[in-house]
């Protein structure tokens, strides 16, 4: 269930802060959100896939930590990403 390179490039282009940015919290949160959505759809079909459920919980925790970091560092950027993705 990994992201295709086209999906990843599109997400990076949409959420990057500067040209060639792949490691900013905004990009990481956006990539994790897309992965979480895909995995959630998978788990709706395969309800007993507990290994994937554990991975989903890890991704949710990582996204929450990144978002909390961004809130501490720059409230304006966190509000923007939250509205654009639908977290806030």
CATH architecture: Orthogonal Bundle
Question: Shape from CA axes?
Answer: globular
Secondary-structure element pattern, one letter each: HHHH
**Broad CATH class:** Mainly Alpha
Q: Can you describe this structure in just a few lines?
A:
Helices cover 76% and strands 0% of the residues. The chain is an all-alpha fold.
Explain what the structure shows.
By secondary structure, the protein is mainly α. It has one domain: S15/NS1, RNA-binding (Helix Hairpins). Helices cover 76% and strands 0% of the residues. The chain contains 4 helices and no strands. The chain has helices at residues 5-15, 25-45, 50-73, 75-85. Helix 1 crosses helix 2 (25-45) and helix 2 packs antiparallel against helix 3. It starts with a helix and ends with a helix.
Can you give keywords for this protein?
mainly alpha, 88 residues, 4 helices, Helix Hairpins
Q: What is the topology?
A:
Elements (H helix, E strand, L loop, with lengths): L4 H11 L9 H21 L4 H24 L1 H11 L3
Helix pairs in contact: 1-2, 2-3, 2-4, 3-4
